[in-house]
Every structure is written in structure tokens, then in C-alpha cells.
Amino acid sequence: MTRWLTDEEQRAWRAYLHATHLLAEALERQLQRDSGLPHAYYEILVRLSEAPDRMLRMNELADASQYSRSRLSHAASRLEAAGWIERLECPTDRRGQLARLTDDGFAALEAAAPGHVEAVRTLLFDPLSPEQVSQLRAISEAVIARVQQWPVERGVSPTAAG
Amino acid sequence: MTRWLTDEEQRAWRAYLHATHLLAEALERQLQRDSGLPHAYYEILVRLSEAPDRMLRMNELADASQYSRSRLSHAASRLEAAGWIERLECPTDRRGQLARLTDDGFAALEAAAPGHVEAVRTLLFDPLSPEQVSQLRAISEAVIARVQQWPVERGVSPTAAG
DNA sequence: GACTATTCGTTGAGGTTTCAACTATTGCCA
DNA sequence: TGGCAATAGTTGAAACCTCAACGAATAGTC
Description:
Strand order of the largest sheet of chain A: 1-3-2
Order of helices and strands of chain A: HHEHHEEHH
Distance between the termini of chain A: 13 Å
Structural class of chain A: mainly alpha
Oligomer: homodimer
């Protein structure tokens, strides 16, 4: 009793997959080439730069960036080795680690930001009307709400194997 | 002279990033758990299943799936080892390789499809109105057109390092 | 036919992500 | 306080992707 996709949905789904793939790839390359940063790491630096004292618990940073703990931990090691962040003991919880953006890290972010923003604008916002921009936001928010109300752990279709 | 994002654009951009991330992750996990297939490989099997004789040149398969040659080649090795596809010599071009979906591969796809479709429907289409579905398609198509008209190789912002 | 450029697909190295396992610490509750 | 679950973060192995380089075949040109 599978509810298959209609033709209209099928077309929308494929267009969505294609568009998100192309956009992500283009932004990835732009960032990588112009500043040597993967988009994932750029995100981390952005979050830190917006935090008070440019500092966050690994925990909060992971949640803010939608990263797994493990992924963030590996990424942090790399960013630390590059001198862009540093790790500090957390004074209130001895399990905790604080990640702080260094001056070098901030400089790297400042150097990367204009090109990245320009790319986002050129590839995403320029071709959209103002109405489409707010439609995109509404659609995105609806999906966010839906996915969060349906945690991944529970599984979506436990019968698929049967 | 960077054209920074407006607040409205900023919000749309972050919502977009968040939504695409959550959705991709949820679908990835669902597929992985229910059928052991990464979404990337699922895509490959789908393309093959739709082709005449369930068979495509590596070339065409790469283009259809938006994969790099290298990525597809690695993926094909893996899928071949799993017994889901097989490689055949191309009769008309001795450089070529044909990838053909095996019966086992088709069976794996048939087993995975209902759960995956159900997840796509549940997480993406159920929370959207019909209007939003066509908006999503229009937005996606606009972005596709834009990105393709602006090839990655040329670079988006050669001045970002300055 | 030889020369060159292009295309096809693969390979290996290196970087990133996931997964499962692990230690250390905190929170809860009797 | 002692016991136990939950949380914070790290680690190593395996999977996956990217990049650059490569060998092989084809296409275009003279």
C-alpha cells in the first residue's frame, strides 16, 4: 500500500534533488578554491564568530551547526591544527570543552565571506523573485518542523524489509 | 563592495540550509537502516532501472546522476562487489563500459523503494500544500538554470582572496 | 597514415563523515 | 554516600568523496 509520488511530485522531487546538488557543489568548489575551506568548516567558523567571546561549548556548537559530536570533534581537530580555533577547558563542567575562534580564524573567515556571500547571491537569490524567497523560507520551515517532529531514531518505515 | 544578504535573505538562507540538511540526513538514515544503501547508490540503481535493458554507459549514468566520473567509478566497484550491477564491454566504443542492473540489484531496489518513497512523502510532501509543491519546483528549476549557465569552472568570485 | 587533442573510465592518495566503542564526568534517587 | 543512568567529548576503523594523474581508445587534422 505504498503511496507513490504523483507525476507532479516526482518532477518537483527530482528538480529539488538536482538543484540542491548543483548549488551545494558550486558553493563547495567556490569556497574550497577561494579560501581552502570546506563549506562545513566555514559554517563552524561562522557560528563561533557570532557567539559571545567567539566561544562555544562543543555541545552547543554541534547543535547550532547540525553536526554529530563525532564529526565536530574531528573537524575541530583539523581547525585547531590549522590555527583557526583553540580548545579551552570548560570552567563549569569538567567534561566540557570550549572552542574559541582565534584571530587567525576570524581573519580567514573575513577573507572567505565576501566571495561566499556573492556566490550565494548570484546562484540562489538573483534568479529568485522576492516572493519566491519568502516561499522558499516558508517551505523550508515547514520541512524543518516536520522532520523535527518525526525524529530519525524512530524510523520512518520499519516494514520496508518485509 | 560586497552585496551582503538582507535579513530576509539571511533567514531564508539559513532555513534552507537547515531544511536540506535535516531532510538529507533523515532520508540517508532511513535508507541506510532499511536497506543498507546510501542514498547516492540508491540513485544509481534508480537510473539504471529506468534505462532500456537496465543498462547505461558509465558516461551517461554519471551525467544522469550528477556524479563525477571518479565517484561513479568507485561506487560502481562497490555495487558490483555487492552483486547489484555488472559491468559489460561496450560494443561500439572500446573505451566504454556498460553498467547493467542485475536481478539482485533490481530486487534490492524494489525492496528499498516503498520505504524511501514513504519517507519522502512523509517528510517533504505531506507538510507542503499543492501550491508549495509547484513553488518548490519552480524555485528549483530557476536555480538549476542559473547554476548551469554559470559553470563552476569559471569561478564565482576570483577577487575574494584580495 | 602520423600527430595531437579529446574523451572514457580507472586508480591511489588524502581528506571528510559515519559508526561503534570508550573514558570521564555529572545528575538523579534512594 | 553509593549506584546507575545520562551526557560530554574523543578515538579508530571503515566507508565515501575529491583531486590529480594515468592508460587506452577515439576524433580531427594535415
